[in-house]
Amino acid sequence: MTPANNEIKRHDPSDIRIHWFNAACWLVLLVSGLGLIKNDKLNPLGAWLPDVLRALFGGGSAGGAVLLVLHEVVGVVWLVGIVIYMGVNAGGTRFFLREIFSLRPGDFTWMVRKMLRMTVGGGGELPPQGYYNMGQKAFAQASVLGGIAIGATGMILLASDKILPASVVWLVGWAVTLHYLAVGLVFAGLLVHIYMAAISPEEKPGFRSMFTGTVPRDYARHHHGLWVDALDKGEPGAK
Ligand code: HEM
User: Fold this and answer.
1) How far apart are CA 183 and CA 52, in angstroms?
2) Which of 10, 90, 225, 236 could potentially form a cystine with 128 if both were Cys, beta carbons 3.0 to 4.6 Å apart?
3) Which residues form the pocket of ligand 1, taking CB atoms under 6 Å from any ligand atom?
4) pLDDT in tens, 16-66
5) Phi, psi (5° rounding) for residue 236?
6) DSSP H helical ranges for 163-195
7) Are 135 and 192 in contact (CB under 8 A)?
8) What is the pLDDT of residues 163-185, one digit of tens each?
């Protein structure tokens, strides 16, 4: 669909599909993962969630086994989905990784001023930002690096159930620890991401763009000035 005159394209349909696929997988993995921690000293939510979920899937240890299979299957589907997306939209993947890992002068100042604005007020003018602002970049970096750690340690845990010998118990111990830490890191960022993307009134056009693929030009100019400049100059690599 061609964007209306005052709208500019922000996401390909495949970007939108992978984003919501990723979010849906995260929801199921987070809830089922918390449900697997049947130790109320370790589970941040206590024993009620594991009990409710196990009851839902047949009760007792059989319910726990079904929950584990669900967690493993969705984990593998999630990784396969991401690999397929990287193949289908290799250009979009390269653009995304290049953008989120390139820091520009002004990004640090943007982050400090934005945090001041959102907490105590003031903070001064925000330096112009590119396709992603520094807050979006920080979360995207955490979700890419955290996602790699979660996927790799998840595969070790899956293999430990089926094929790994008992002699690599140390590896499994590290995998469990890193799996929890990486989920904790991404989840902390996710709370801010969901607030900024879906609740903060300023970002409503960005939220709509995750369904329509486009944003109003004025919004883009105000929030992502350097991106719009690059588009206007027809710079190679500007999406
Ligand atoms: C209810 C849940 C979620 C909502 C409402 C939401 C909303 C959004 C929105 C509106 C954007 C577009 C921002 C823009 O381009 O201006 C976005 C981008 C992004 N989101 Fe989410 N998100 C959710 C869950 C997640 C999850 C679970 C992850 C990963 C752990 C995630 C990772 C990302 C990343 C990496 C981007 C940048 C990628 C892109 O723009 O294509 N999101 N999200």
Assistant:
1) 22
2) 225
3) 10-11, 15, 19, 22-23, 26, 140, 143, 186, 190, 193-194, 197-198, 206-207, 209-210
4) 999 999 999 999 999 999 999 877 777 777 788 888 988 988 887 888 899
5) -65, 140
6) 169-194
7) yes
8) 878 788 899 999 999 999 999 99
Q: Which atom of ligand 1 is nearest to the CA of 16?
A: 41
Six-digit token pair at 50? Answer: 């594991």
Topology of the domain comprising 107-239: Fumarate Reductase Cytochrome B subunit (1.20.950)
Helix (H) / strand (E) element for 214: namely strand 214-216
Q: Roughly what angle, to the nearest 10 degrees, separates helices 60-88 and 48-56?
A: 90
Contact 143, 189 (CB under 8 A): yes
Paired tokens of 201: 């009134």
Q: How far is the CA of 89 from the centre of ligand 1 (A)?
A: 17
Residue 216, beta-bridge partner list: 7
Residue 10 CA: distances (Å) to CA of 63, 208, 215? 43, 11, 6
Residue 19 Cα to ligand 1 middle (Å) = 6
Q: List the chain domain ranges.
A: 11-89, 107-239
Burial 173-190 (b: 16+ CB within 10 A, else e): eebeebbeebbebbeebb
Q: What angle do CA 171, 172, 178 make, to 5 degrees?
A: 90
pTM of the model: 0.91
- What span, in angstroms and rounded, lies between the C-alpha atoms of 194 and 58? 33
Residue nearest to atom 22 of ligand 1 (CA): 194
